[in-house]
Amino acid sequence: MNPFKIIKYGKHFTNKRFMSFASHIGKNLTFLRQAVVLFLCFRDPETPKYVKAVIAGALGYLIIPMDMMPDAVAGLGWLDDLAVLGVAFKVANRYIKAIHHEKAKSWVPFGKDSL
User: What domain of life is recorded for the organism (predicted)?
Assistant: First the structure.
């Protein structure tokens, strides 16, 4: 997936909507910690704007209920979201710091740190 196509979903992303999504979904998503790592990287003032745009697009895609494959489809519904997060991780990899992983681990004690 092209990172520039992901950016268009940034209009659906806000800090408040992401935190609401994260608290609502909770332990149902094994990759929630990775999403939180991206969220913390997004909030870091040292992260470049183009990386923030890709992260906002990926997180926006994650929180909207209607996407390429509806999330209600058992097992398969989250695969497209996981792919979009993977692209965002690849773009943001240089700017993700150890502190982002540590904070994400304290917020979401389950799951893995990276995709």
Answer: Bacteria
